Every structure is written in structure tokens, then in C-alpha cells.
Amino acid sequence: PRNTSAVIAAAALVAVGTLSACSSSRAGGSSSKSSSFSSASGSYEMNPSFACSIGKGSRVLSEMQDEPRPLARPVVIAAGAREPGFAVAQTGGIFRYATTNPDDVIVVPFMAENDFESARAALIEAVVARFPNVSRGETIEVDVVGIGIGGLVARDAAIGRPGQPRLNIGTLYTISTPHKGTRVTGLPAGDARTADLRPGSAYLRNLDRNY
After folding, report:
1. Cβ pair 107, 186 in contact under 8 A
2. How many CB atoms lie within 10 A of CB 97?
3. Considering only CA atoms, which of 207, 6, 169, 167 is closest in space to residue 98?
4. Which residues contact 72 (CB under 8 A, 6 or more apart)?
5. What are the tens digits of pLDDT across the range 18-70?
6. Could you tell me the CA-to-CA distances from 75 to 11, 72, 127, 131, 142 in Å, in that order?
7. Enclosing H/E stretch for 82
8. What pLDDT score was predicted for residue 186?
9. Residue 92 backbone dihedrals phi, psi, to 5 degrees
């Protein structure tokens, strides 16, 4: 439960606070909430599955910082495609301030990887390097926050493969992850992930088969 609260609070601040296109003022500007813009109506609409305001997220984080406690499991934050590591490091800092075991929060950027296979390997290697007690062919149990394609990388890393450890995920939280694919990736030309991100790709079908 504590990890869940931390994720909701951090996501409210990071996802809502830094993405102005996904924020709107309600009740005369008294709070910004997670929302999406509807071109049909010309207005913002609340996301019913994530109705957390920045104010509420801030209050929850303040309470945690006033009385920090251990995390139930280590938290791994998997970055988006072209994020060099600055924003995801800030996200990690938000989690670390709220717990008595800040070393159990790690962040994994994928700026150096240009395909999902190497990103998967980088994610698993980062977890094993920090928590080396691999057993039964899997890492220790962790909670993962996947930002953008980081959510897909985490799902891929959780699939078992012969001769490779799998990522043992307790709970996976994803923010703006294209689970059903996307035709607008923002990736550079020639990036192998572009084809994998197309709706209906073999990569996405494999993730769904192993859901």
C-alpha cells in the first residue's frame, strides 16, 4: 500500500505537473488534475482512473516525508525512449525523500539503447547489479514505474527466457505507455523500436500473449 501511495503521488506531480498539455484548471483554477483534451468538445476531460490533483499529490508526499517508512519492495523507475536521465532522476528523488531506505529506489534510462532487446537487458542488468540475489531464474521482487516505452521494456523483461533471469515484478505502474502501439514515436530514423511500436507488431503481440 505504501508503494502504491508513493506512485500515485509522484505520478500526480511528475506526469501531471510537467506535462502542461495534460493539465487543466478546475473550479476557477484551484487545482490541476490529470485530464485529456477533447477536440470534439474543445475542452479538457477528467481521466476517471487517475483523478489525482497536484495539490493532493503534494500533501501525500509531504505526509510521507514527515514520517518516512520503509518501502514494501524496491522501486525501479524505467525511463522513456529519449530521456537522457535527468527527469527520471528527479522522479527517483521524489520517491527517495518519502522512505527510510532510499537506496532501494533505482532509475534506469535507455538513452544508449536503440532497440527493445538491449533495453530489456539494460533494465535487468541494472536491477541485478543493485540487488544481486538472483534465484530461480529471476530477480528479487520489485515494483516498477514505467514511463513511456519504459512500461513496455518492463513487461518484456518480466517474460522468462532460457538462460536469462527475468524481472520479478510485484506491481507495474505505467505512465503514457503505448500498450496498443503508436505511429508517432518521436524516435530517430532507423531506430529499430519504430517498427516494434506499430499497432499489431510482433513485439506487441508477444507482450500480450505473455500478459
Report:
1. no
2. 16
3. 6
4. 1, 2, 3, 143, 170
5. 333 333 322 233 333 444 444 455 555 556 776 777 788 888 888 888 888 89
6. 14, 9, 10, 11, 6
7. none
8. 75
9. -60, -40
C-alpha cell at 45: 476531460
C-alpha cell at 171: 506491481
Residue at grid coordinates 533505482:
106
Integer Cα distance of 158 and 92 in angstroms:
21
54 and 32 in contact (C-beta within 8 Å)? yes
Rg (CA), the chain: 18
Which are the contacts of 121, defined by CB distance < 8 A and separation ≥ 6? Answer: none
Helix (H) / strand (E) containing 205: helix 202-209
- Which residue type does 128 have? V
Question: What spatial distance separates the first Cα and last Cα of the chain, rounded to whole Å?
Answer: 23
| Reduced DSSP (H G I as helix, E B as strand, rest coil) percent helix, strand, coil of the chain, to 5 | 40, 20, 40
d(CA 82, CA 63): 33
